Amino acid sequence: MCEVPSEMTQRRDRLIAKLGDRAGELAEYDGLERALAALVDAGTARLPHNPVPDDVFVERIADALLTGEGAVTVAQLERIQGADLYLACALAAKDARAVEVSEAELMTAVRQSAGRVDSTRAFVDEVSQRVRDRLLVGDGTSPPAITQYRGSGPLGRWVRVVASRIALDIKRADAKHTDDGEDALSQLPAPNDPELEVIWRTCAAEYKAALDQAFAGLSKRDRNLMRQRYLDDLNIDALGRIYRVNPSTAFRWLKQVEQKLAEATRAALMHKLSISESQVHSMERMVVSQLQLSLVRMLRGKPS
Fold it and tell me: Would the pLDDT of 226 be above 90?
């Protein structure tokens, strides 16, 4: 009768098989089974409901060890942060409890890092949301960044680096928009209609003010949708994953918010300039190509 390998032996064999000819000294390391057991124990202590299967976690450990060059060493294995790597695996699998832990622990570090660049609430909130998207959603062409964490250092420190980079990217983009797009609306050509030409040459500032007023009247969720669509350039599939709804639902929400924003902007502009609805519609067609730029600039300064 064949003896069934123990759980610890199965972990060891799986790791060595994954490492292949780069297993190095780990292939003969007597303490390998105990070391792997300690990593698993650290992970399940962090998330006692055990959301990550043993084989998946061992594979992730192997991937982490293979990120360097040459044969793997015992010292590399000893540097792995078991609890953090396990949490990263669970986040990649979109485990609900892992997401709760991330919000309680990691997002605190994110907000601290963002605050060192700009302590305003609007900026910190924007950086926090972008970090969530980068870590857990991805950008549609690359996987969520949490899959790139290798466990060689604390996860909190790794996330702070991600947050700092995003915060600095936003500041650089803000500076570029200030240089390139401040007067984008006012620089659009006037319409051919003589009456509208007179109105348009004096209404660019009022249009931006009306857009700002309309945005302020949106709900927090609607404002976040606008940020995620216009600032983060997230597609419908990504928005669906964030809100845990079908893409068709996310698309419907987005269109409803855009309609509310357009209607409120139109009403405010009509009241301010005392012009007809048909004239407002004409001007809206004029600015449609520049609306995203205007909206992006406005959103960067808006609180959630």
Answer: no
